[in-house]
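> tool_call: predict_assembly(chains=two)
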Amino acid sequence: MAENNTLGDSLRRHGVSRRGFLKFCTATASLMALPPSMVPAIAAALEKARRPSVIWLSFQECTGCTESLTRSHSPSVESLIFDHISLDYHHTLQAAAGEAAEAAREAAMHENKGNYILVVDGSIPLGNPGYSTIAGISNLQMLEETAKDAAAIVAVGTCAAFGGLPQANPNPTGAVSVSDIIKNKPIINVSGCPPIPTVITGVLAHFLTFGTIPELDQYNRPKVFYGQSIHDRCYRRPFYDKGLFAETFDDEGAKAGWCLYKLGCKGPMTYNACATTKWNQGTSWPVESGHGCLGCSEPRFWDAGGFYNALSVPISDNSQTVAFAAAAGLVLGAAAAGLNYKTKDEAQKAHANVTVDDLEKTS
Amino acid sequence: MNEPMDFLIWTRGTAFDIAVTIFVIGVILRLFEIISLGRKQNLAEPKGTEFGPGMRTIFTRSIPDPGTFRRQPLTVVTGYLFHIGLFVGLFLFVPHIELFRATFGFGWPGLPNPIVDAATVLAIIGLLAGLWHRLMNPVMRKISSGEDWLVWTLTFLPILTGYLAYHRMVNPYPLILGLHVLSVEALLIAFPFTKLMHTFTVFLSRWYNGAMSGRRGVES
């Protein structure tokens, strides 16, 4: 497990050339929007970095985040970086099981007290501890225990970062995010359902290089990856501006690659790096493959209206609201009209003709 | 409610339902009230017909008469600027059309965004000029009531926030989009109970004006 080999040693042993390593450092620098002058610094820091211990806890999740990570441009340098951190505990990926697995976690926590990185995917149920347990330990207890001596916490995926799908209305398990529970540790949210693999490794690379947390946005997401919206970086944006929209998924507009706003694309409200980093080794990304953005890196994306409704369409059934309100308005209006006709009728009946002579008599 | 996304979801859900319910009930109720009350019965002998002059006035009042234009050119020009700009921004912007389509089941073609954008700027200029006129002209200031200032603000805010949201000038986007939706909801709630009702009654009242003049045998 966590030997004292540096990352540089380890990479050389795996036959990664100096050139390949520097290329990775350059890519990392540009990914993190750092100036080229930082490349040697990154190389030097990574070269010397000891494999930090990483404990990965999975709570109420679907393993999609891990699936995403394991498909990260394999076998690229990014995945090697991940091989070369010391992943001391991870349900899905570790060989150990049962008590041995828990012992590995406790050993890693003990040996690297105050220095290990805690990665969490999945939300934590507060409703009933029995909703999700590992080795008989509730998610809440395990998180609090493991977070206590961590150097930093990376909440991977929208469930860990914001509550995600388990928290969707009506939130049967009382699911909450990591930051709802842990208040006294630096937390980096790497949201997405799942997050882009390069973004997960990029965050870890930043931490290895600088030993600090990257600059974060208001949701504690690294600004380098979540600083711009999908809409602003979308290659289909010119079609939005020109007013050219696909109306269905197989019309001429869709074939011509027009904007997917009307088909429910949530790109305007979504902050993520999909449009620039792309998926599957830069092959494509949802909008490029013809489907609108679901907004999966935003809090409560599951409750933010139908995936195939335009962003401007209300979340609740507006036509029903209008129909009910109109019916109520008609009933009330008819009643008001009835009262008015009655008043007018009475006035008409009470009407008497007055002549000039009558007026003279009374004055 | 401290998170912009919670705020946006609330404005697009619960708050929209409340505002639309008040708006629809209020408008229908007021229209019934106005139409059923009608005008006071005129017992004088009619000097002409009502229907023809009434219908004609609906259209003729859309063109300012030369006298009014000479006395108040600013009112006429900014009035047109604002109303046309608002119409284009409200009914010909594609995201707005999608809202109407989801509500009523039908839509219509929109305009390219730069044209809608320009129309919105015209509407903003029109409103600001109207405000300036209202503030600077002593007569206008004297006859302005609290409702006038309220209605101006309620009309201005949706256009301003919509412009800011479209140009993505406020971060994060869900916050400014939520403010845009919320300002529209404030407008919808106030709508039936203020002079904003003229949107629905304008042609009706023109007909009444024309009909009353027609009955008296004078030009309206």
